[in-house]
C-alpha cells in the first residue's frame, strides 16, 4: 500500500522553489547552486557524469567487522545440518570421521534426524532476522549504532563460547544436554548477530560525509562526485564482504570432518575476537550518529492519529482514505488552532512528512519475502538436485539440505558448485561497480533502485525456471526413472553405502541457478540495503534496516510452511512456481512503486531539511569518537 507523500501533496505549496533547486525539478534555474552542494549548479548536475567518491578508512574498518561477523555465522551454521541430524561416526567422540572411513563417512553428533534438524535450522534463520528490531530500537533511541554494535559483539562472542561447549566430547556424551546448549547458543548468537545486523549497514554509510561536488579527472573530464553513487558503491563492497565471509563455510566442513565439531566451532569463535578489537582500536576514526530519543514511539503516535479518522470496517474505504491527500492532516500540528492541538503531539509538520515517506520506503520491502524464497533454494533444494548428477566427492555439509538416507560422498555436491554463489558475487561486484553501472550512467540510463530491484526479481525467477527445467531433465535421465526412487538416492544396489548411479548430466550444469541468483542479489538484495539507508530519516535508519531484514524471517516462515512440498519428487513444480511467482510479484512491485521511482531524488532528501537538529543533510551532533 502506498501512503501519500505529505510534502508532495501539501495544499499550500506543492513543490517549493528551494526543492526545485535541490532536486532538479523541471523549471528550476539551471545556473542556480544546488543547496548543500559545493558549488554544483543544476545544469552541471544534469549534464556531467556522476561518479563515486573515495571511501574513508573508517568505512573499510566497518567492512572488516562485517566480514568477521559473517565468517563466524556461516562458518557455524553451515555445519549445523550434520551436527544435529547425524549420529557420531564410528569410533568418534567429537563428530570427526576416522581417516579410514572418509571415503563414505559423514561427520555427525546429535543424531536428532532430518526433521528436527530442519526445524532448528529454520528457527535459527527466522530468529536472526527478527532480532534486528531489538538492535535497531536500542541504537536509534538509547545507545547509538557504534555502541550497540560494540555491546552486542560481546553477546555474540558469549554465544559462540556456549556453542563450542555444546560440541565438546564431554557434552556430546550426553546428546540431550548438547542439544539444549546448542539451542541456547542459537538464541544468544541470534540476539547479538541480529542486533549487529541492523546497525552495521547504516554505520558504514555514515562514514561517508562528502557532498555533491565537481572534480576534474586526470583525463581532463569534469565529473560530479555524487553521494548517491558513492552509497551504491559502498553497499556493493559491503555485500562483497558478506560473501567473502560466507566462504568460511568451506573450512568449517573440512574441520568438522577431520578434527570434530569443537574445532570447527572454535575457529570462527577465535576469528570473531577480531570484531571488538577492530572496534576498539578504530574507535577514534568512526563517524557516529548519537541516538535521537523516542523516535519509534513518536512514529506510532503519528500513525495512530492519522489512522483514527481513516479507519473503516469497509477495507476499500480505508484504503481510499489512506491514499487521500489529507490523510496525514490529523497528525500535523498546523491542522489545529492554537491551543487546541492534542497533548500527545510533540513533533512538527516536517516529522509527519518524514513518517509518510519512510512508510512508503518500508512498503517496498514487503515484496521481498518472495525474492528470498527463490534465494533459499540455493542453500537447500538445489543441493539435492546436484546430488542426482554426475560429480566428484566432497564433505557433504558443503550443502545445507541432504537426503537423510544418503551417506556416500559420491552423491553430494562439489565444493565448486556449493560455493559458486558467493564466489560469483565476489567476482561480479567489481564488474558492476567499475563497468556496468558507470557505463549506464555514462549513457544517461537511469537504472534507479526500483528498477534494479525489479531486475532482481526477474533474474531470480529465471534462476528458478532454469532449475525446474534442469530437474525435469535429471528425472528423465536418471537410471532409476520410473522406479519411484529419487535421482539423489539412486544407487547400483540396495545395500547401505552402495555406489551411486546418478544421471549422466554433469554437475556443472547446476551452476546456472547459483550464478543467476548471485546476479539477482546484486540487483535486489544490495539495493534493498542501500534503499533502507537512503530513504530513512537519520533517527530511524537502524529500525528501517531491521524492517528490511525482517522480510528474510517472513520468507523463512513461508518456507517452513511449504515443508510438505519440499520433496524431490515435486522439485520441478516447486521451482517453476517460485519462478513464476517471482516474475508476477516483481511486476506488481514495479507497477506499485513506479511513482516512487519517478520521485527518487526527492525521497533521498528525507529528513534532511527544515527540521531542528539537521544541517546540510547531516545531523547536528555527528562526531568522531
Automatic annotation (TrEMBL):
Compositionally biased residues, Basic and acidic residues: 1-10
Molecular-function annotations in GO: transmembrane transporter activity
Swiss-Prot/TrEMBL GO biological process terms: oligopeptide transport
Residues annotated as transmembrane: 126-143, 150-172, 178-196, 234-256, 262-282, 452-474, 514-534, 546-567, 573-593
Positions of region (Disordered): 1-35
Membrane topology, from the record: Multi-pass membrane protein
Keyword vocabulary terms for this entry: Membrane, Transmembrane, Transmembrane helix
Location(s) in or outside the cell: Membrane
PROSITE patterns: PTR2_1
GO cellular component: membrane
Protein family (similarity comment): Belongs to the major facilitator superfamily. Proton-dependent oligopeptide transporter (POT/PTR) (TC 2.A.17) family.
Protein name in UniProt: Peptide transporter PTR2A
